[in-house]
């Protein structure tokens, strides 16, 4: 344990490589875009109303608000926003969302302590690393599943709470002994059950829905072949067997989802097109052996399209867009952020935010970003 704490202490003195800081700055950019896009959602509105009644010292910015709240309250609201759309980064094969827990906590403490951009990035990096290592400690390789999920626990909450404590402790300059104490307290407080995921509740957004997003990518590749939907007689969406329960059952509901949230995790609806219910009805989700073998190291999909003239087209997505094997370019990441951010701020503000976040790895401090967020809202 001592050697691990030495690593954290050394990083506070010597700093981490610039390319690591740049990578984590990209995660911050992506998460801020998700938060801005989720501002109109009910979960964050409810949490913001609650913490607003708690009051306290103005220490950290709540995204979407011109006011500041105590750092823990701001972290709570921003963490809710970060994961509201299930659009945040995902670590595989642990299937947890590290940035949604760590970034809001680190951002709140960094603003409160007026930390530098590099110090913020270093704390973020180690907090995310701690989260992912805990997630992997709970991964059962033989059964290709997380023991957290098998026991009804929510891995993102259980592991992310510790990662958030590590990042916050670094930014506050805690000694090794006090960091250990903070982690112990975080373990006592971090809890969450996954049952809502399985019964249709919205407390936890569905992990396995990402398989449907892989299916979207294969549908887009098919569309680039200029296939007329009118001549499609059948579509077969092959996914890992464990995700069928999430995106394909009951099939009659998945073909005509009852809400936008429901549609986001419907295999037929997502692959076909939101405007084409008739085409969605022709989609048959099935368990694909190769996809099942790869899962959960990836969330793969295969789309097979049969046309009226007998032609069969197939597209496979073995590596998720944004993962190590199929990474987003800096331009693609910025474009994704702008599309999300424009739901809440104008394009000029979105561009300015993107430039500031990119500078976190060098000389831009988090307070410059949160200040712009407040003025924009």
Describe this structure in words.
This protein is α+β, with helices and mostly antiparallel strands and 377 residues long. The protein folds into two domains: 2-205 and 329-376, Orthogonal Bundle (2-methylcitrate dehydratase PrpD), CATH 1.10.4100.10; 207-317, 60s Ribosomal Protein L30, Chain: A (2-Layer Sandwich). The chain has 20 helices and eight strands. It has helices spanning 2-14, 18-37, 42-54, 71-83, 98-113, 117-137, 147-150, 155-171, 176-189, 195-199, 210-223, 244-247, 251-255, 260-264, 267-272, 277-280, 289-294, 330-341, 347-358, 366-376; strands at 60-61, 68-69, 139-140, 145-146, 232-239, 283-287, 301-307, 312-317. A four-stranded mixed sheet has the order 6-5-7-8. α5 (98-113) runs antiparallel to α6, α5 packs parallel to α8 and α8 (155-171) packs antiparallel against α9. The longest helix is centred in the middle third of the chain and has 21 residues, at 117-137. Mean pLDDT is 82; it is low at 203-213.
Features:
377 residues, alpha+beta, 60s Ribosomal Protein L30, Chain: A, two-stranded antiparallel sheet, 20 helices, 9% strand
Compact summary:
This protein has helices at residues 2-14, 18-37, 42-54, 71-83, 98-113, 117-137, 147-150, 155-171, 176-189, 195-199, 210-223, 244-247, 251-255, 260-264, 267-272, 277-280, 289-294, 330-341, 347-358, 366-376, and strands at residues 60-61, 68-69, 139-140, 145-146, 232-239, 283-287, 301-307, 312-317.
